[in-house]
Give the backbone structure.
Amino acid sequence: MTRTPRAPGRRTAAAVALACALTATVQTPARAEPEPATLTEVRDRIERLYHHAEAATDQYNAAGEKVSAKKKRVRGLDARVTATETRLTRLTSLAGAAARAQYRGGGLPAEAQFVLTDDPERALETASVARQAQQSTQRVLTALAETRGKLEKQRASAEDELRELRSERKKMAAHRKTIEKRIAAAEATEARLSEEQRRRLAALDKEKADEAQAKWVETGVLDQADKTDRADRTDGTDTGENSAGRRAITFATRQLGKPYVWGAEGPDSYDCSGLTSQAWLDAGVAIPRTSQEQWRLLHRVPVEDIRPGDLIIYNADATHVSLYIGDGEMIHAPRPGRSVTVAPAASMEILGVVRPDA
């Protein structure tokens, strides 16, 4: 964490004013934490609040995805059960008609028909066909009844899971509201800072991002990445502007300036993973909706092999994601109150890199 040296006089007055603003706007949580008294502490607290909110939002979105998938499964099972019941009804009707026909014919067993008929050979053939038809119909009816029973059990199980997921999503929604309240308090605090304090706060953010980026560049990662990118273009792995990764970049570039909104995936606003998932979908590749699932399921590549179009996953809990555009920069939807923007790729803690079209 970067600390700025304290200046006498004016800096002290600013700190006192900030402490007053915080006291006036932030409600003390159940477990009270020391009120920040410097801009560095304010920045750290706001970052912490936004991080918690982003983690909650990712979990909320993931729960929503599971609910949607479960709804689709239940609808599919309902359709299969209905189709099975329709067939069962039709075959039951046919079986009944066959029984009525047999009753009208006297209901004679095959042996009696053989004795009484003038054409024993034909009687044997008719009786054999009738028995086969009855047995076949009964087998189908039995199989369909068993299938319907299994489907009903599957549907009941899916509906139980759906109820559980809905309950979990309600819990997540309640948790998200708690985070929203904390962020609203942080935003209100930030809004009450003087113009000079807001400028200084922005400068601290930039200073921290620049330091992180400089350390990343010093590792030589970008030099290796440039070599990898050039090699890809040479051997045909990357077909230039027509590659899926570059089409994803083109899509993301068109979204610059659009606001960050939790849970949004376009077209007018985005959250971080909403932007990356839609960018790659526009490029013809469907990827998971949340940053945590993108990190868990997509192909991971070494950071030094990063190329334009890859996704950079941030934070130890994979709660943020951006789209790498080359030259050490990325496009991302930062947080509430900000818009989709271009930023240094290492301005946050990098967890790793994934490649959707590997």
Q: What stands out?
A: Confidence is low (pLDDT under 50) at residues 1-30. The beta strands are 299-301, 311-314, 320-326, 329-332, 341-344, 350-355. The chain has nine helices and six strands. Residues 120-191 form the longest helix (72 residues).
